[in-house]
Write a structure and sequence with these properties.
single chain; about 180 residues; alpha+beta; Hypothetical upf0131 protein ytfp; five-stranded antiparallel beta sheet; 5 helices; about 30% helix; globular; disordered N terminus
Length: about 180
């Protein structure tokens, strides 16, 4: 069966703002791991957390490693509407690829899920920025969904709630909070 059809429930993998603001109804919310990708501030945001003139940075799933996040199970009768919502939210500039992956849920179940992964060929894909560049872009990014520091802080707060430590994001917050920086 195809993922996201009316024939089965839909699983959606959240690793950033979807964890703390999914914006859709779900039947189940479970910690999950996706192998082969890691969470990274690798997307230049020209809409949600920045502008064309001053892009901010948002998270993407980039190749390599693994990522712990949240899997949401959406009832099959709401799957297509949920995918439409997610495409509108995540694909403003088509910087993400809608991809399908095997997710390992915290209770050991394996499910097929939809995730939005970074398109490394897109002009908004940010390759290997220095720590200073990451901090500067986050510090000054503001878009239609709010300021970039709030996005990073909310993501870290949600990760902490579920017992996940992200050292890169924690270092960025420490730099943002440093009065001398």
């Amino acid at each position: 069966m195809m993922i996201g059809t009316a024939h089965e429930d839909l699983w959606v993998f959240g690793y950033g703002s979807l964890m703390w603001r999914p914006g859709f109804e779900y039947e189940e919310r479970v910690q999950a791991t996706l192998n082969g990708y890691h969470r990274a501030l690798c997307i230049l945001s020209v809409h949600h957390r920045g502008s064309v003139e001053r892009p901010g940075l948002v998270l993407g799933l980039d190749k390599g490693g693994s990522c712990r996040g949240i899997a949401f199970r959406v009832a099959k009768h709401k799957a297509e509407a949920t995918l439409e919502y997610l495409r509108e939210r995540e694909q403003v500039t088509s910087v993400y690829l809608e991809t399908h992956h095997r997710l390992r849920l915290a209770d050991g179940r394996l499910v097929q899920g939809t995730a939005f992964t970074a398109d490394r060929n897109h002009s908004q894909y940010a390759r290997k920025l220095s720590h200073e560049d990451l901090v500067d872009r986050v510090r000054h990014g503001v878009g239609v969904s709010g300021n970039n520091p709030d996005y990073v802080r909310a993501t870290v707060a949600e990760l902490q709630k579920i017992g996940i430590k992200d050292r890169t994001l924690a270092r960025i917050i420490a730099a943002l909070d440093d009065p001398s920086g």
